[in-house]
Specification:
single chain; mainly alpha; 2 helices; elongated
Length: 68
């Protein structure tokens, strides 16, 4: 009798990890304790994702500093 269990050996090869370097660059940032929640709340009030909110803040700072 054949194996009729729910689980079968996969015939697919393991997936290659997604290579983010082809599309985006990643920067890990550490904030003081409690700051993450403050940033998340401000982003939500602005209707933005946390990532988008931080990116916009950095872009604005770069623009402002390059005017000097």
């Amino acid at each position: 009798m054949k194996n009729q269990g729910k689980y079968q050996k996969s015939t697919k090869s393991p997936k290659q990890p997604y290579n983010f370097t082809d599309i985006n660059s990643r920067i890990n940032v550490t904030f003081p304790k409690g700051q993450k929640e403050i940033i998340a709340e401000a982003a939500q009030l602005a209707g933005e994702s946390v990532n988008g909110y931080i990116k916009k803040a950095v872009d604005e700072r770069i623009a402002r500093d390059s005017e000097k």
